[in-house]
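User: Could you write out the 3D structure of this protein bound to pyridoxal-5'-phosphate? I've included everything you need below.
Assistant: Certainly. Input first, then the structure.
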Amino acid sequence: MTIPFNRPYLVGKELDYIAQAHANGHISGDGSFTRQCHTLLEQITGAGKALLTHSCTAALEMAAMLLEIAPGDEVIMPSFTFVSTANAFVLRGAVPVFVDIRPDTLNIDESLIEAAITPRTKAICVVHYAGVSCDMNTIMAIARRHELPVIEDAAQGILSTYEGRPLGSFGDLAALSFHETKNVISGEGGALLINNPNLIERAEVIREKGTNRSKFFRGQVDKYTWVDIGSSYLPSELIAAFLAAQLEQAEELTRRRIDIWNRYHAWAESIEDAGFARRPIVPVSCNHNAHMYYLLLSDLAARTQFIEAMKAAGVGTVFHYVPLHSSPAGTRYGRSVGQLPVTGGTSDRLVRLPLWIGIEEHLDQVMRAAERALAPRPTMHRSISE
Ligand SMILES: *Cc1c(COP(=O)(O)O)cnc(C)c1O
């Protein structure tokens, strides 16, 4: 592939910081680079407390433990998301209850949430797709009315805002991802953001194998011991060092992505006008982080043909998600509310274009290839001499 779908970008200091972590003589978790990442994340997101994890998946699992999700409990979420949104709760024995998405933002349709609530509902987990916020005013009002905690799967949402407020600062808990395909990366990596202060102390315990090690290091207890359930969710300092370098440049990384996104969006206007595709829709209440540029094509056949033609032109494009409610595990562990027609249609029609820092010089090539893939050469017109 001449132009891959994703290429991880280095800001420059990552490897120096990793060497520094080693020179510090501390490469297991929770050293000075981890503390620096926590501070940077709390500044960026406005969250009460940030804890690095080895993935967003891990942060979601911690969220499920913290909310004491138990067998038979229900958690309301979209079906149009990555598997980890559901798996974290299924691992606690809970039932993901899938509701449809809005046709504009492809986020959970907040108008369908209340009808999905039952006496077994224990939480609402929303996903900010493509770094564009869900309707948090409505969602938080429903959650308050029914006294349900909200978890934000903000894997794609770092540095996005809703009504000027950072994503990850609304729910009781939120999860970020630093997987290499996201905006700010550490290969694999994530963070749990904790806005409900009652959950902070237990989050530290769960993350540290169920021990009170964090309290011990703060001198608050004189020995450290097993106090609760937990696992090993903290990343090594090598990962935190890499991430610290990225987080220091997070705003610059986002600016550069937004430039690329804007170029795609201006270019795709005529494609939309010609009826070949629909462009992303960003509500006025949302500032997004240019995590993703996608097009919605007319149907599955058009999308399949597009991805093939792009591949032949050397450009990597991908689709997602296979809806969770119709996946083998989703039908086994989950339940849907209604038919989820928007989820089904979106999943057939969506294609993601490559968006990474450094692609700028290749963007024209991507756009020309996409134009040809969308509108195959018209059949030859009859020549005048005939
Ligand atoms: C990427 C992603 C995840 C998983 O993140 P990891 O860090 O790979 O565990 C979860 N949810 C959504 C919506 C994602 O985009």
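The chain is about 40% helix and 15% strand.
User: Perfect, thank you.
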